Amino acid sequence: MSILIVDDNEANLFVIEKLLHRAGYSDHISFTSAHDLLDYVYSESPSTIMEQVDVILMDIMMPEMDGIEACRILQENVHLKDIPIIFITALEDSEKVVEALDAGGMDYLMKPINKTELLARLRVALRLKYEKDWHKQQEAKISAELELSMQVQTSLLSEPILQNQLVVKASYKPAYKLAGDLYYWYQLDQNRIAVIQLDMMGHGISSSLVCMFISSVLRDAIRTNPDPEFVISELNRWMVSIHHDQNLPYYFTAIYLVVDTDKQTIEYINAGHPTGHVLVEGDQLVELSSNTCAVGFFDNIRTKKEMIHYKDSVQIILCTDGVHEAIDKYEQKGLEWLKSRSTTLYTEAFDVEVEPIDLLLSEEQQQAANDDMCVVLIQAGNLVNTIDSRHNFVESKIVT
Hints:
Blueprint: E1 3-6, H1 10-22, E2 28-31, H2 34-41, H3 46-52, E3 55-59, H4 67-75, E4 85-89, H5 94-102, E5 107-110, H6 115-155, E6 161-162, E7 166-173, E8 181-187, E9 192-200, H7 205-224, H8 228-246, E10 252-260, E11 265-271, E12 276-280, E13 284-288, E14 306-309, E15 313-319, H9 321-327, H10 332-341, H11 363-368, E16 373-381
Parallel strand pairs: 1-2, 1-3, 3-4, 4-5
Antiparallel strand pairs: 6-7, 7-16, 8-9, 9-10, 10-11, 11-14, 12-13, 12-15, 15-16
């Protein structure tokens, strides 16, 4: 612990040093000007000084630079602004005292200095500094844990697939560090792939934890039986068990589908999720509307899969409600906008650097969003062979 004392009068410095020493505060450094104080605090890293210095006792009236100006300079530094400053003054001008406190001072003492008042104010300042330091340490600890959790959650997301007959990629933008949105796909065999996009109730830490749990259940369910009716029923069973066993009333919306490039079919279930859009043969738009309730709403839900056929090519766009809200907070305009955008064949999808969400939302819309956002883009069939040459498609970017 260190206390810095600033006063242009050396007699005043001597008195304060004596009082502090007798009270057991032996670690203190004195300065005769505000410039000397600033030179000292900036002689090392401000973050290091912040850890070493607990309180500053500073005179208001000093030549060249007064204590108020020095205080304002310290307040501009993110590391130094939390060091408590107790002003010392012989002025009886209340406006000057108010100005000093408005500049960032925590308290003030009148000269001549009263020992009891000095020590009482010092104890309060030290307690405040200790509490601020403790909160900063806790925030740093929580931030590190959140960063680790974010890495774990991100590791659960599937890698893009860029093949001649199949492209699957996604954009994932949490509102905070952790998200309640999840996407996953699994190559069942040479011709079939299972894909899901889900949006857990709420967002943040609690939603992300339930998401991570359901992710493991999802993987087991798909490997056991990838049929949409089985997978959605199995996920519902586990969500209901969480509700009953742990009293956690969570639910999620989802679109789960299986694309078969050999039979040229798409089997899907939409469990209360925003409408997905399928562009068949480049000109026919089919909507993947909700055909059952959200997963976890009821003990038993009706799961009836639907099927879409295509002959040559198909493009599927799935979005969580955060994307709709980024376009229009009431979501209706968002649905119409996405519907119109889904009629475009996105040749940019074959570029690994291009994010699907950038094809739908501007940077401003993405920055202004306050909900988790996820976009999944799937392209299957012979659309690679029909790409317009003006897009300068680079063959080497496709993994065959």
